[in-house]
Amino acid sequence: MQKAWRIGLLLWAMACVLPVSSSAQDSLDFTGPSPGVVYNGTDYFLTIPELGFMGDFYGIQWKLNQTDGSWSLTDSWNVSRRGFVVTAPPDFTTGSFSTFDLSSLATTNNIGAVHGDATALSANGDIYVINRFGRNSVIVYENADFSSPREFSVAVDGENTNPQTLVLISAEKAYVILNNSDFIYVVNPRTGLEQGRIDISAYADADGIPEAGMALLQDGYVYVALQLLDQDSGFSPSGPGKILKINAATDEVAGAADLTLRNPTSLLYHSMGKRLLVGCSDSFFPPSVGVGGIEVVNPAAMVSEGVIVSEAQLGGDLNLNGIVMADVTKGYALISDEDFNNAVVSFDLVTGAKLADVYGPVSFEIGGGLAAIAVHQGRLYVCDRTLTAPGVRIFDTLSETQITAAPINVGLSPAMIIFY
């Protein structure tokens, strides 16, 4: 009862304190998803997933100090209104992107051209498209204005650097993660002008390239997953992967964690557990089903704490960017079997057990299958590239039932999705 009273008091205080004027008070909107309290076995967290204020929408999270009853802010985020889908035909010879309204699901298709192998991210209202191997560039859409894009090359020294992602440090600084180079490229994200290079050659395997892949910024440090693939043997893993820790202020490597699993292909930060979740796929060709899994890394100590969910438990080989979290303990994985048929399953991060078969298996087709998954505001989005009916499928994360009667047509086949 006392905890419930404190939560009610906090919500009342927010309604009283946040508005700065009578007009602002009229703009405070609590009509989004209901606030909720989660207990992770150690701490209580209060989350307001959507709070409207002055025409903008935010999510906010606090943690309870169980000693004195106070609450401290632990996280906040902008609430997105639209989906951005990178698309490509089955042969990946070209690419485009489409957007859709997250409420009405109305789409605007084939807005602009991108590379056939591209990914994207959204930050501070801007959208960045990373064109990978062959084009080696970044396209910037400021304020999600698709009419005036700016593109800059990251083919450093004329090389096929194969950029994987971009980590925004500030409005004037970003790291471009290059899979085919032995350094991290530091640029101005608006102009593309080089600001420096962070040497990571000391962490490479015998081919001289550490194959930097996924990366994220957390608490002033950038964490980078090194795949350590042998380019002389068909990009098979040469040994267990690594996680680098880089000081985003000084651009210096501050530590490295050795993984027990090979080929890290997914990287998430668990804000309540304050741990990195690293999805490792081992070998794709040939598939090594049951060998990889999800490994936990303590980012403060930079040590692996072991495998928390195995591929054997999930029932398949983890795909690229194949894990997402729906809440504190429940996640989703995109997996494949020995014949490259893939499916989406849910899992419990605490027990490591598979919870349900959510969608699939979808039979293997060249250029088809399931390409990516994402979670946003209680919904699971699945990029389905099935040749006969491609599109985005949406599932409710509580019931795990499909909301869409048919996949949303986004023009070309969907390859990945973000929200803005």
Helices and strands in order:
Elements: H1 2-17, H2 22-26, E1 36-39, E2 44-53, E3 56-64, E4 71-78, E5 82-88, E6 95-101, E7 107-114, E8 118-123, E9 126-131, E10 137-141, E11 150-153, E12 163-170, E13 173-178, E14 183-187, E15 194-199, E16 212-218, E17 221-226, E18 229-230, E19 236-237, E20 240-247, E21 252-262, E22 264-270, E23 275-280, E24 293-298, E25 303-310, H3 311-314, E26 317-325, E27 330-336, E28 342-348, E29 354-362, E30 370-376, E31 379-384, E32 391-396, E33 413-419
Antiparallel strand pairs: 1-2, 2-3, 3-4, 5-6, 5-33, 6-7, 8-9, 9-10, 10-11, 12-13, 13-14, 14-15, 16-17, 17-20, 18-19, 20-21, 22-23, 23-24, 24-25, 26-27, 27-28, 28-29, 30-31, 31-32
Radius of gyration: 21 Å
Percent of residues in helices comes to: under 10%
Would you report the number of β strands? Answer: 33
The low-confidence parts are 1-31
Beta content comes to over 45%
Number of helices: 3
User: Termini separation (Å)?
Assistant: 38 Å
Structural class assignment: mainly beta
- The 3D shape can be described as globular
Oligomer: single chain
Question: Can you walk me through this structure?
Answer:
This protein has helices spanning 2-17, 22-26, 311-314; strands at residues 36-39, 44-53, 56-64, 71-78, 82-88, 95-101, 107-114, 118-123, 126-131, 137-141, 150-153, 163-170, 173-178, 183-187, 194-199, 212-218, 221-226, 229-230, 236-237, 240-247, 252-262, 264-270, 275-280, 293-298, 303-310, 317-325, 330-336, 342-348, 354-362, 370-376, 379-384, 391-396, 413-419. It is globular. The protein is mainly beta and 420 residues long. The longest helix has 16 residues, at 2-17. It starts with a helix and ends with a strand. The protein has 3 helices and 33 strands.
